[in-house]
Specification:
Number of domains: 1
Number of strands: 0
Order of helices and strands: HHHHHH
Number of helices: 6
Low-confidence stretches: 1-7
Shape: flat
Structural class: mainly alpha
Length: 129
């Protein structure tokens, strides 16, 4: 076993222990744990990562719209990946896109709204990404 493989194993164990602890984690730590665990169990953790990224953007970065938008974009990417693996998870992707759209509206970035809304409609119609 190489050192990097060992470090990765340690990171996975730390993430699992953090999430299984009796204390509620701050959004930042929850996101960090899910980012690690998605690498080993994407089907289990992508939906949780998408939700945690949204909460992190809302709780910790409401005053920093660019950062909030980047976190919501990461949530959309996680939801898209999940949707690619399991097309029945369309509601997860639609919710992530809607939350991304919401941030775009708050930032008055109208030029990007159309493509997000088209993707939402396509996914809702069962057309995929």
């Amino acid at each position: 076993m190489t050192y990097s493989a060992h470090a990765s194993h340690d990171a996975v164990l730390r993430a699992r222990v953090a999430l299984l602890g009796s204390q509620t984690l701050p959004a930042r730590q929850e996101v960090a744990a899910y980012r690690v665990l998605v690498q080993v169990s994407p089907l289990a953790y992508l939906p949780l990562l998408a939700e945690a990224l949204y909460e992190y953007s809302r709780q910790d970065f409401a005053h920093l719209p660019e950062t909030a938008l980047a976190l919501r974009a990461e949530a959309v990417a996680a939801a898209r990946r999940m949707y690619t693996m399991e097309p029945s998870r369309d509601l997860l992707l639609i919710k992530a896109l809607d939350r991304y759209r919401e941030q775009l509206v708050l930032m008055d970035r109208k030029e990007e709204l159309g493509s997000v809304e088209r993707e939402m409609a396509l996914v809702a119609a069962g057309g995929g990404v």
